[in-house]
Amino acid sequence: MEKMFCYQCQEAAKGTGCILKGVCGKEATTSNAMDLLLYSVKGISYLTTLLRKNNKSFDSQRINRWIQDALFSTITNANFDEESIKERIAQSVQIREELKTICIREDITIPAHKELHWNATADEYDLLANTIRSIKAESEDIHSLMQLTLFGLKGMAAYAEHAARLGYTDDSIDAFIQSTLALWLDNKLSIEEWIALVLETGKYGVKTMALLDKANTETYGNPELTEVSLDVRNRPGILISGHDLKDMEELLEQTKNTGVDIYTHSEMLPANYYPKFKKYDHFVGNYGNAWWKQREEFTTFNGPILFTTNCIVPPLKNATYKDKVFTTNATGYPGFKHIPTDNNGKKDFSEVITLAKTCEAPQSIEKGTLVGGFAHHQVLALADKVVDAVKQGAIKQFVVMAGCDGRMSARGYYTDFANELPKDTVILTAGCAKYRYNKLNLGAISGIPRVLDAGQCNDSYSLAVIAMKLQEVFGLDNINDLPIVYNIAWYEQKAVIVLLALLSLGVKNIHLGPTLPAFLSPNVLNVLVENFGITGISDVKNDMENWISA
Fold first, then answer.
1. Which residue(s) pair with 451 in the sheet?
2. Domain carrying residue 130
3. CATH, residue 83
């Protein structure tokens, strides 16, 4: 019997969807609570959209931030804490009623949509969620497009939340997210209109990533070519994971002169590339690899771990580190201490620091360094060198290998693909997919490293900027005339918005793997294939022969 249904990530059970428990470790009741939260967010979004259409004011800044957090909390591997999801559901009812009160006061008619009027106790949430989950669009294809849009919006909300943490907001982005979610209540769009909305979602994805790029670079400086240490020191440390650079800054500031060192993990690696963070002499470097290896790497680290965003892997019952893990922002896990944000937008990490002082220094798991920091500003600074290498034939192709990593053994494909690439190719990467090849000894071309790491998954924006600049430099009419191959790995919803962003920019012939999304119906997949040339991957030898210039 189906206890839940979730197919938003690449590891969905049997490639179709998790129905008993999430492959990620998410319990069925937690998944259902998330479904109810999304249901409620759609209702709130309908009301905010209604108020905007009638030029009526409401506390948009607060509600925008709340919706960003709510959507972010339902992303894969972000929040496993059912109670915190239920708290958000209760908050959603309060916000909904607040907005309805404004509508009544302003003489705005409130429709009869159930999303605007439901009530239930916490004990009834699971039953109500199961009822909601059974409601689907009449057309399989429209349902598929709606889910594709929803997952893109989740990724967009995550990036918007990061920007907002640094004080950078754009109401048009939030208005788009909310007006799009509001469409679920009427559900009157045709297939063609939904396809157009998917591309519009990608357009706003570009806008959101540009906003976050601006927030990060204006606050912390432009990422620069950096050699990152992979070794450890003999002092206690704190391991910070996720994507939130504001948390990184606050942690570094609060650990000054404490005798505690700071190490990045997984998607926080690119923090090493920002000039502002380099002034901290207790910022050591990076420890470990992609998110899915955390069970073993957290054990050897010895000190506390701080999750600023997803990707949490539930610890084993006998895990020695599980009492040392802290969460912030939209993340949560039962038993992990959650550090809230105060009224001034700050966090107090003193409990993490105190614990760190009682821990042994990290165990060394690797030596040496890796090089990164090739966001668009750094690459464009090397533009003349890159262009000369292309014109002289030293660089024949660029291969964009951005996206996510994951547990599946099939992802070894990406390591093998990188290893087999001709010596005259350069890899452009962002996101945790890079851990499949960023420590390979692939060398350099004319002093240019063959792996150019732009940063986090949101820094895929940098890859688009680089591509558009190269198009301009070479005087090409079409971005698809560039010598660029796209071989992108996906896992969760931030990768979905990156994909939609690329499509909105007109990029075609993207190869997506290791499997195609389960939420794409056959007809929707055909549209993507026919209109955008999206295909899956096969084996390294075959793909190399078909995609890479001889």
1. 427
2. 1-135
3. 1.20.1270.20
